[in-house]
């Protein structure tokens, strides 16, 4: 259902750009840390059910609810939640324990013995609750996990006993001698806890991947992929675990089976998340993942949602911010057909989300290899992108405009681009982008607007070496706008990168059309060295009163 797919993407794309402050193209799934990004009161309400009456919970969970057989009780408990829910509960509990251990260390430094003891009791209860909860919904945990569970519980009990002795004495010498012992025990608990969580998450990843590998059921496979995707959203560390356990290999097997065609979008979305880490991209290369993605993108029998998710994977693995993409040799072999398919997807996009994913992939590819710009020129990509920008239904956010102007900036190094820009009314578009402003005030959107302003100025500077483009820019009053961006810090949101780009564009236009500047502007913004003009403009916001 395209409507459901689009609504799901709105949240994902917003997360992808949250906190982005770089000057290049986007790196698609930026991993979310949803436990920290929510409102504090909402977070407290969510955690409340896990943090109250821990002692009672520990006692109750070890007793049968009724006189019925234990097997039935276990079945009732385990059927209340899905695997995904159980893992989320486990991760929340683990986050609480980790936070409590940090706070104990802080209180210990300040010799707050009463607080240390009460928090130790709470951690002890949380650990027991977490282990009981996990053992309720898992049936095949390893002997190594049971060993760490036992060691962790024993250490927590020892820790509680130690801190209890501390509150029963006021002798400073005794407390001082016990402090090192308590610190050592706390460190050991943290190590056991970290190793146990690592084993648990590895075990769950293995179980989910085994389900995907062995099941012929659409429902079971879909459920397992959904749970796997939820795990990838918990951070890069979990993505590494999944990649090391063969997650990329397993998911590409799904993408090569026609019987699972309806699961391709979900599977590709999960792959994009895993490929934010080096291990994921290495695995993708080993299983000819690029070839599979190229086949999906060029196969017209697939849905738009499938094509868009394949574009998201391409955008992720070609991100200019990843330092480990140079080994993607197979990408160059398939680049022409991938770029062709992505341009077509931009041209036929039915929504802003689809266009954003396809244009982001193209933008990243223009950084990845310079030959991509020549291919884009041959495919009339500039005309297609400029036409898309006039459709507010398709290019509807600063994020989309950021991708378009990134492509234009990278293509503008080619001499043939100037005529394409003139024919497609591109100078007018670049002028409009110099006025890009955030409507919401959201920090991610403000940063995107700065990138749009900066890259549009860079593109103008590069293209203005052509007299026809420079003449068009002057006629559209680009020079007054560039001067205002240089002189008014608020117009550029105090961005130094926008200032430098505008100074460069202004100097290029001044050479082509010196009559367009007043003498004061020429003396301050064009004639001095670039660094001197930069310092002059950055000091304009200072008050000497």
Question: Which helices and strands occur, and which strands form pairs?
Answer:
Blueprint: H1 2-17, H2 34-37, H3 40-51, H4 54-61, H5 70-78, H6 83-109, H7 113-137, H8 143-167, H9 172-214, H10 218-232, H11 236-244, H12 247-254, H13 264-274, H14 278-286, H15 289-298, H16 304-317, H17 329-348, H18 352-368, H19 371-378, H20 381-389, H21 398-411, H22 417-423, H23 426-433, H24 443-463, H25 467-475, H26 478-487, H27 496-512, H28 519-526, H29 530-538
Helix pairs in contact: 4-7, 6-7, 6-9, 6-10, 7-8, 8-9, 9-10, 9-12, 10-13, 11-14, 12-13, 13-16, 15-16, 15-17, 16-18, 17-18, 18-21, 20-21, 21-24, 23-24, 24-27, 26-27, 27-29
GO molecular function, one term: cytoskeletal anchor activity
Domain Protein inscuteable homologue LGN-binding: 36-80
Protein name: INSC protein
Task: Walk me through this protein's architecture.
This protein has 545 residues and is mainly alpha-helical. The chain folds into three domains: 81-202, Four Helix Bundle (Hemerythrin (Met), subunit A); 215-379, Alpha Horseshoe (Leucine-rich Repeat Variant); 414-544, no CATH class. The chain is built from 29 helices and no strands. α15 (289-298) packs parallel to α17 (329-348). The radius of gyration is 29 Å and the shape is flat.
